[in-house]
Design brief:
five-stranded antiparallel sheet, Immunoglobulin-like, alpha+beta
């Protein structure tokens, strides 16, 4: 058959025209109480409470989580990270990515369906919408109804609460980068700094748009996870699946009729699985990238199966192998590889974190004057020591140089540095020119905390003098 023949369609064939920039239709999600809806609700609460309350938690007189950008300090509970610890952040992100891959191999997109911030915030917004405008059918009728007092106050009330939630979200996000108590006082007294005000309003607007209007569009078009999830799936990955062999052919039937004799399957074609779906897909069409594995269609289908006295599980969390031959495999090479890689990375990260020395020593030679001769005929070099105490507590450090016996040390050898302080210390070294074999000599500055010898650092430098023949 030629391409021209293939392009022709029969008169009875339905033709669907897709427009690239077609406006998406609003999804009126139906509420259906069941196991997965309760699981979704309660799994999101700890993450939501953690996000909102962490900035208010105090440890050692400061916020438990505070990214102090001006001071270049990142306080996470009792640990303070500095820019030089950026590699640890990269490791942590890689570990999180591999953990997500491992979870996806086992249970698919459960992160998207139960714990993703977009899902949690959208669920809150839909709850507010339902409170003001009623259930699915009432919301449809309200949107189609002409504007009147009833419609106005319901719409205004809904958007007011949406904006309040969005503002709390934006304020909390900014509070991770600013002292939250002072930020709250600044807002109440209308003296908030311009940058904090801008970012609060920016994230308020983004939260309002994402959870109020974009909703499923974020999951379907903006989130990259939906695009590469299929690479991590296999035939033993738990997914929300429709048992086509059992459910087809679909059709309505009387309660006590012999539907099998009519060639019908268990699916009564009620459409509830589509109505409860937050992204508006029909799970009966097979695995789709838009599905976020929230399980709400399972709750709806199981409720209908119970009503018509059919076995539950027409839609369920299962695997392709389970549907095909009744068997599935939990441990497979890909998953074992992820687990081994995760174990190694977490072990290395934990060891690095536990053995991390909260001290950094930088030695800077005075480059404007390589060396000078003192009245006593000695050669003198000047060094500036930058001592970065990355601990939250003050420490007293003992300073020494190696080799010690040849040099005359001028400056304080015992230095006290407050927690989180970068201290600058000036040191001069003098040396008999007769001891200079070449024009310079390697030296090492060693700094050790007196109260904990495990906290130490060293920096190599050079002592420069005239070239001796």
């Amino acid at each position: 058959m030629s391409c021209e023949d293939e392009s022709k369609s029969s008169p009875d064939e339905e033709v669907h025209v897709l427009y690239l920039y077609e406006t998406g239709k609003k999804i009126y999600q139906r509420r259906f109480v069941g196991f997965f809806r309760k699981l979704k609700k309660y799994s999101g609460v700890p993450l939501l409470m953690g996000y909102l309350l962490l900035p208010w938690l105090q440890i050692d007189g400061r916020q438990a989580v505070w990214f102090d950008l001006p001071a270049r300090k990142f306080h996470i509970f009792s640990i303070t990270f500095w820019p030089q610890d950026f590699m640890m952040l990269a490791w942590l992100l890689i570990i999180a990515a591999f953990a997500l891959f491992a979870v996806t191999v086992v249970v698919g997109r459960v992160w998207c369906g139960f714990s993703c911030p977009q899902t949690v915030w959208t669920m809150m917004y839909v709850g507010v919408e339902r409170f003001f405008e009623g259930g699915r059918n009432k919301r449809i009728k309200l949107d189609l109804a002409p504007w009147n007092f009833n419609k106005v106050w319901r719409k205004v009330g809904k958007h007011a609460v949406w904006l309040l939630i969005a503002f709390i979200t934006g304020f909390t996000f900014v509070a991770y980068f600013n002292p939250v108590r002072q930020l709250a006082l600044d807002f109440f007294s209308f003296t908030v700094p311009a940058d904090a005000l801008f970012w609060t309003l920016f994230f308020t607007l983004m939260s309002y748009m994402n959870a109020g209007y974009l909703r499923e569009q974020v999951c379907k078009y903006m989130c990259p996870y939906a695009r590469f999830q299929s690479v991590m799936f296999d035939a033993d990955t738990l997914l929300v699946c429709y048992d086509k062999a059992r459910g087809e052919a679909r059709g309505q039937r009387k309660r006590d009729s012999d539907y099998r004799a009519r060639g019908l399957g268990d699916c009564v074609d009620c459409g509830l699985c589509v109505q409860v779906c937050p992204v508006g897909i029909d799970i009966r069409d097979g695995l789709q990238s838009d599905c976020i594995s929230c399980g709400l269609c399972i709750d709806a289908c199981n409720a209908i199966m119970e009503k018509v006295a059919y076995p539950e599980g027409l839609i369920s969390f299962t695997t392709e192998n389970k549907l095909a031959n009744g068997d599935t495999h939990l441990f497979r090479p890909r998953l074992i590889g992820y687990i081994v890689a995760l174990f190694i990375m977490i072990s290395v990260f934990a060891y690095t974190l536990m053995t991390r020395v909260p001290l950094e020593l930088d030695v800077i030679r005075d480059r404007s004057l390589l060396y000078r001769e003192t009245p006593r005929g000695l050669i003198e070099n000047i060094y500036t020591l930058r001592i970065n105490n990355m601990d939250n507590n003050a420490h007293t450090y003992a300073l020494k140089i190696e080799p010690e016996e040849y040099f005359r040390f001028i400056g304080e050898r015992v230095i006290t540095v407050s927690g989180g302080e970068v201290f600058t210390h000036l040191v001069r070294l003098e040396l008999d020119p007769a001891l200079l074999k070449r024009g310079n000599t390697d030296i090492i500055f060693v700094l050790t905390a007196q109260d904990n010898t495990k906290i130490h650092d060293s920096e190599e430098s050079r002592f420069i003098g005239p070239f001796m023949r």
